């Protein structure tokens, strides 16, 4: 194995991908397998470079000293020779001008190659000030002082060279080869992701989440145990957390082959609806390979077909409360199915091409990659397994479970109509699911699709955690009915509407801006340009807090739990879990954005100091 030439932390000169420009960078790590150096530019951008694209800082300083020592002697000798010539000899005068012009262009070429300024993506922001990413969409200049300062600094640094360039171009004194070369350098308008696609090959995951290998190993057992504990507690007459542990059911009572068959049938039914040629086909965001996957948007149609099927079964006297009577068995069967799916996903990921692996699940550790997900977008033909599980079996199953709990409450308590608490819980959560399916295309821009692999974490979360934990309030109300007044119901409804409005409007702003930043409907939004070619919104909801969608989620989660009263904390587990989950996601997003956007993210954090809760956190 060849030894590495540059050490971690060493400051060197790195070539910008696709150009002949070198910039001052710092070596952060080295991949022994791919033989690539991960370097960090001054603006926070990180790239993987080959060794022949990196030069030591001393070699550049040596070149500069040679050029500075040799150029004065050439200029003095040229001046001495020019003094000995008669001014009436025009031919030699032209030679002198040509020699000086050639020397000037050679010095200028070295300056271009050896400059240690910001990458060309930021230079394009200066050279083309009329582009949208340097202004707000209503045509007004960006009002942030940070942006103005950065552009003034660039102008001061590049103004002399720009003046010289204009003179050379005006009098056609630039050779064609050099002109063509400079056009290639400064015509780079590709985004950071495109450049990264060409030059950077996937590397090993170095920063492990959830406690690394030991933490993820424990989570594989802790998550199913948590689900079974919550469901067991809801079945108790006194579901207080002080009554721990709850009575454990017999193992043989947890499994029934018929129930497992119904789970498989439900999965197959939703897969059939997914494959129906209805709904539009859209492209996702660019992958690391540069290509875009296609997705069929028909989740809402699948929901309508499922509702029609359930309605038909109820018409023929199907007892849907069977689901309530065997709820624990359904949870165990779903957990077993998600484990088998996770094993299948990991085995098939071992044969997946390198560029199709997930950046967060390519650590080389079996347990960690199994939990996080080794392959980014596992597909069987056009059937995208991760995208399908994200919204279909679990989310639609959540609504069916809530309906089963409503019918079970009416049967067990001999009610002619459901309780007001049960109606509120079902209505609020139905709105949430319908909204997700109606705006199905928005999920394509989430980190679950663009960054996380499909492993046990998402498989168990989509197929077990969502349908069986998110329906905890409805399951709780069946065994512990709670009466609330109409004024309280109105107040809870208003709270849920506020949370939903924040959640939906914030997500719509973000998704529309990502899809088409030049949309005239978004002209009122202002943003901070980044080295990736994208912008960070500093107005609207994203100028209020950094994660307004999380704020809306938490408010809605509280509204879902309030109809259960305050007798026990168990129905509020979802709120506590949701706060912990979103704080973890927020920390992960902060770290990811800081690495991706560099200095632009620091400017954004100064403009928007609060993360989730305004004036608090």
UniProtKB/TrEMBL annotation:
Basic and acidic residues biased stretches: 101-112
Membrane-crossing ranges are 210-231, 259-278, 299-318, 330-347, 458-478, 484-503, 524-545, 565-584
Q: In which pathway does it act?
A: Steroid biosynthesis; cholesterol biosynthesis
Which InterPro entries did the record assign?
ERG24_DHCR-like, Lamin-B_rcpt_of_tudor, Sterol_reductase_CS, Tudor
* One annotated GO biological process: cholesterol biosynthetic process
- Got a GO cellular component term for this one? nuclear inner membrane
Segments of this protein annotated with the region Disordered: 58-114
Compositional bias (Basic residues) at which positions?
A: 76-97
Q: List the GO molecular function terms.
A: Delta14-sterol reductase activity; DNA binding
The record's annotation in Gene3D superfamilies points to:
1.20.120.1630, 2.30.30.140
Ranges for domain Tudor: 4-62
Membrane topology of the entry: Multi-pass membrane protein
Q: What is this protein called?
A: Delta(14)-sterol reductase LBR
- Upper lineage ranks? Eukaryota, Metazoa, Chordata, Craniata, Vertebrata
């Amino acid at each position: 194995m060849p030894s590495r030439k540059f050490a971690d932390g060493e400051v060197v000169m790195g070539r910008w991908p696709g150009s002949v420009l070198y910039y001052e960078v710092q070596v952060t790590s080295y991949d022994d397998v791919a033989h690539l150096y991960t370097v960090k530019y001054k603006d926070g951008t990180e790239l993987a470079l080959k060794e022949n694209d990196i030069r030591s800082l001393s070699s550049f300083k040596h070149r500069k000293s040679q050029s500075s020592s040799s150029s004065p002697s050439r200029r003095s000798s040229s001046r001495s020779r020019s003094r000995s010539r008669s001014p009436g000899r025009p031919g030699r005068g032209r030679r002198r001008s040509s020699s000086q012009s050639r020397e000037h262009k050679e010095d200028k070429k070295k300056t271009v190659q050896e400059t240690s300024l910001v990458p060309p993506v930021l230079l394009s922001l200066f050279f083309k000030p009329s582009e949208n990413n340097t202004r707000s969409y209503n045509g007004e200049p960006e009002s942030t002082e940070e942006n103005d300062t950065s552009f003034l600094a660039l102008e001061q640094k590049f103004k002399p060279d720009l003046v010289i360039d204009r003179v050379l171009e005006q009098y056609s004194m630039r050779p064609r080869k050099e002109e063509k070369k400079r056009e290639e350098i400064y015509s780079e308008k590709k985004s950071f992701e495109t450049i990264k696609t060409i030059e950077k090959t996937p590397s090993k995951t170095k920063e492990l989440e959830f406690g690394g290998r030991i933490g993820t190993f424990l989570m594989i057992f802790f998550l199913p145990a948590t689900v079974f504990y919550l469901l067991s507690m809801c079945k108790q007459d006194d579901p207080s957390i002080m009554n721990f542990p709850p009575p454990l059911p017999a193992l043989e009572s947890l499994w029934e082959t018929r129930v497992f068959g119904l789970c498989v049938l439900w999965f197959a039914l939703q897969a059939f609806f997914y494959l129906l040629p209805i709904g539009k086909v859209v492209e996702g965001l660019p992958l690391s390979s540069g290509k875009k996957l296609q997705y069929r948007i028909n989740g809402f149609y699948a929901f309508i077909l499922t509702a029609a099927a359930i309605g038909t079964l109820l018409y023929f006297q199907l007892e849907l409360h069977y689901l309530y009577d065997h709820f624990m068995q359904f949870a165990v069967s779903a957990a077993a199915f998600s484990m088998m799916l996770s094993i299948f996903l990991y085995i098939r990921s071992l044969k997946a091409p390198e560029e199709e692996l997930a950046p967060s699940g390519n650590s080389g550790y079996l347990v960690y990659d199994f939990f996080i997900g080794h392959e980014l977008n596992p597909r069987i033909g056009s059937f995208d397994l991760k995208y399908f599980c994200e919204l279909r079996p679990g989310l639609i199953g959540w609504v069916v479970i809530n309906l089963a709990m409503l019918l079970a409450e009416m049967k067990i308590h001999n009610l002619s109509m459901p309780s007001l608490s049960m109606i509120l819980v079902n209505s609020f959560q139905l709105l949430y699911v319908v909204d997700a399916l109606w705006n199905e295309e928005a999920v394509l821009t989430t980190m679950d699709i663009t960054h996380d692999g499909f492993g046990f974490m998402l498989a168990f979360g989509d197929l077990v955690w969502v349908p069986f934990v998110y329906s905890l309030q409805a399951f709780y109300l069946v065994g512990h009915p709670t009466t609330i007044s109409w004024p309280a119901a109105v107040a809870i409804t208003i709270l849920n509407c506020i949370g939903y409005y924040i959640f939906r409007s914030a997500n719509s702003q973000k998704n529309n801006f990502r899809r088409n930043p030049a949309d005239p409907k978004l002209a009122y939004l202002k943003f901070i340009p980044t080295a990736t070619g994208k912008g960070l919104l500093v107005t609207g909801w994203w100028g209020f807090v950094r994660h307004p969608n999380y704020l809306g989620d938490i408010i809605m989660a509280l509204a879902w739990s309030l109809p259960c009263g305050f007798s026990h904390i168990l129905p509020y587990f979802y709120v506590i879990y949701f706060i912990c989950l979103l704080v973890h996601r927020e920390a992960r997003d902060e770290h990811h954005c800081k690495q991706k956007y560099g200095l632009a993210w620091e400017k954004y954090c100064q403009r928007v100091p609060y993360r989730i809760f305004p004036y608090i956190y």
